[in-house]
Predict the structure.
Amino acid sequence: MGNSPRKQSGVAMIVVLWMIMVMMTLAASLLYATRTESSMVDYARRTAIARATADAAAHYAVMQLFLPPQERDLQLGGKPLLWQYEGAKVEIRVVGENGLIDINYASRELLAQIFKEVGVEDQAASDMLDVLEDFRDVDDLKRLNGAEDGDYESAGLAFGAKDAPFERIEELQQVLGMTPQLYQALTRYLTVNSGAAGINPMLAPRQILLMLTEGDAGKVDAYIAEREEAAKDGRSVLPDFGQAFFDNSQQPLYRMQIRVFTDETAPPYFEERSVRLSPEKMPPFVTYFRVLQASSAQFE
């Protein structure tokens, strides 16, 4: 009986310690939840600011495009224009959609050049082109190494070949055998909006010109310098390479890449959009699509 108060005291101490541990755990959980919520709010705030800044940059780029070429600060072909707005630094790149390769109209030979450029071996590229052409053509006839609805079903997919032209580049992801890595590599070269079989070199980004010279950077950079001088005078100039793939078509369609630096401690916001100039409307352009992009998709 003499030890009973001590035992009771020991039990009480254990209960108190247990309660303290529970309270500390609750406090730590509350602190973590508060920090997480604060981070989410801060991320949402920075994203909203970056998005609004990107909107302002797109309007500025459109204003530039309405100016005569010799009066623009912005140069077509993907050369970056640095711009500041409300304390944020912005990098704007613009190419004409006719400077990209239309996946619906380009020849098989030109499309094969792209696959080669992104590192796909010849036979694998040929097989992939069969599948791609089966996806976009209107019939259900299967090419030698192509794929029609039955092949998609055998692969466990709930959809088949579209049997119609591509309407968005994102549809490439539905082509049988297309991997995320290959899709991401191809998006820098392709469009569905030019409506032309070839490329307008006056509007093309550097990576497409490099593809046509098989990586001859000196030749490409010399042409780009010549192109910039010609644009100041409102002239067009053709390079001495890749002429079999050229087309001088030019529609008021442009691909914009906008990178916004709002905070030195956070990664930049990077988006891509396709716009058509429409002088008779307000605002004087129509946005066809607007997506967040990986840095690897940046025009050179």
Remarks:
- The beta strands are 81-85, 88-96, 101-102, 190-191, 253-261, 269-277, 285-292.
